[in-house]
Amino acid sequence: MQNNTRNFFDKIISRTKIYLVIILILLITICIQDTKWIIPSIILYVLVVIYATFADNKRKNELSESLQDLTITVDSAAKTSLINSPFPLVILETTGKVIWRSSKFVSEFANIDIQNYLTELLYDIKQEIENKKDSKDNNDKSVIINQVEIGNRIYKIFGRFVNSKKSNNSKYTIILYFIDETESIKLQKEYTDSKSCVEIIMIDNYEENMQLIDSEEKPQITAEIDKCIFDWTNETNGVLIKSDRDRYIYIFEQRYLEQLKNDKFSILDKIKDIKNKANVQFTLSIAVSNEGATDKEKYKSAQTAMDVILGRGGDQAVIRENEIYKFFGGRAQEVEKRTKVKARVVAHALENLIKESNKVMIMGHSNPDIDAMGSAMGIYRLVKELGKNAYIITSNETNTLQSFKESLLKDPEYEDILITKEVAEENIDETTLLVVVDTNKVNYVEAPEILTKTDKIVVIDHHRRSADYIENATLTFQEVYASSAAELVTEILQYVSIKINLKTIEAESLYAGIMMDTKNFTFKTGVRTFEAAAYLRKCGVDIIRVKKWFQSDLASFNKIAEIVKKAEIVNDSIAIASYNRKTKDASLICAKAADELLTISNITASFVLGNIGDKICISGRSIGDINVQIILEKLGGGGHITLAGAQLEGLTMEEAKQELIIRINEYFTEIE
């Protein structure tokens, strides 16, 4: 508008000049014709110039007044809009001084001490201003978006800030709009709460337990189980369907999910209280999921979660939410199964997979122990007996298997079967069968990157299934009742269609794996454990040579004794010790020290922390009263009730120790 006005003034001035020039020419012409008109012409021309100047100045003043009136009118309209804004609006400075409030702001917060809220809000806004000072996005620098609960209402706050004084960059003027989103948030919450969750309930070992119960008692036991489950599900107002003798499908609204978490699935304990003459204890496995757009997708997600639960031994519950597993229960010892059907089926399937493959690669967990290596040796012999080439992926940096490797490499056959992960990555292809033993965790295998190189993967493991298990396995043989992976491999060797001629060192490595995980057949041994050991003894195991593999030198024994000496007792019966020296065999020293601590009376569980370089390792052991697997699972680890481990990154030894103590306290709080 100012440019247009300036052009208008220029036009007026230009036009007046033209007129004055024309008048001047006419007067000069007249004066030339008659000289007596010279003086009158000069007087007349001066008067015309004076008038033209006066007239132009008057027009300018009139136009300026018109523009000023227009500006005032616009400002008044803007002020009227602000004053009568439908949203509460306030203008204030970062010092806390309120410059102006809208009438809606005054009425909206009439019964609330809004100044306290503004003070807290200003603190957050100041932080946001500081963060945006150096922002390269100019559009984002002055925008404020926040959410705050005032009284019983929730407001989304939108506003802008500007420097109130050029000389003081720390002082800003802020205009804030308060938009009430209470109803929309309530609607969103109601929509979320009304979504369905799918739950699968399974009775563990139903068939085996029912075989031990008298026929006349079976209907009564079944009715009691049904009543217990129906009564528990009635608390969350869902729909329960019994889809099989040992399986239930339950659908309920998501609003009750938090109630289930707080309840900690009390049904797991209630079901165990059902009495029967055979003294058989029933347990449940429960999987809940709210992931998926449809109930069908949620059911599939719950089914995946159920596979995880069954892989962990049952007698527990899991909630899968936002791709995160939260476990409940699982504190009872696993019950050994009484049928070997699955071992026979797996043996037959594994045999076919080996025959269909070009070559086979075998790997255990990182920093492998004798159980992982023994299991790998057993699978190696099976592959060789089927006429295929096999290789074992292992690291040369570990000292835990030094004695065994020295014995192994005395036989020329094994010179080329131990390969590094770099060599394996270069030679693996889609036709290669990858057998993973003694672990089911993606990030715990010797070479995680190899898992993506082939679609043919077999997992043989005895640990409880973790949340980050290998999902794309073609065949999984995971039995948590087993003492060791070596026991499972030994069973497979007995049930394949061909006769397996184990070499002595292969049989001894399998036997050593069982010995190590059972602590010389003391912990977690069942009938099938001794059957597997008996089979290996027939293959020519030299127990004396096996024992030599477990012997420690005097220096290592002194380290263990030093660790045990400095152990601390927490929660009356849990020993915690640390091994601060940074050595390659720290994990082995920690494991042996944890075992040694359990030999002390009144110690029910032990944890030993060690420094393995860029990580802190933790070895956990228990006699069965305390579930060390649940405690270390909270730290990203896993294992069994009596034996578990974990590795922590980015923490010092003391920080890791304090984190462990926190998790131990959480464990006891949850079981109260």
Considering DSSP H and I runs of 4 or more, what fraction of the residues is helical? 40-55%
Estimate the global geometry from the Cα principal axes. Answer: elongated
As a whole number of angstroms, the C-alpha radius of gyration is 41 Å
Largest sheet: 6 strands, mixed
Mean pLDDT: 82
* Spatial order of strands in the largest sheet: 7-8-6-9-10-11
In total, the number of strands is 23
Unreliable segments of 5+ consecutive residues: 1-13, 69-74
How far from one another are the termini? 78 Å
| Secondary-structure content class | alpha/beta
In terms of DSSP E residues, the strand content is 15-25%
Separate helix tally: 22
Structure commentary:
Helix 19 crosses helix 20. This protein has 672 residues and is of the alpha/beta class. Strands 7-8-6-9-10-11 form a 6-stranded mixed beta sheet. A 6-stranded parallel beta sheet has the order 14-13-12-15-16-17. The chain has a 6-stranded mixed beta sheet with strand order 18-19-20-21-23-22, with helices on both faces. It is elongated. Helix content is 46%, strand content 22%. The two termini are 78 Å apart. It contains 22 helices and 23 strands.
Structure, briefly:
The chain is elongated, with a radius of gyration of 41 Å.
Keywords summarizing the entry:
672 residues, disordered N terminus, alpha/beta, elongated, single chain, six-stranded parallel beta sheet
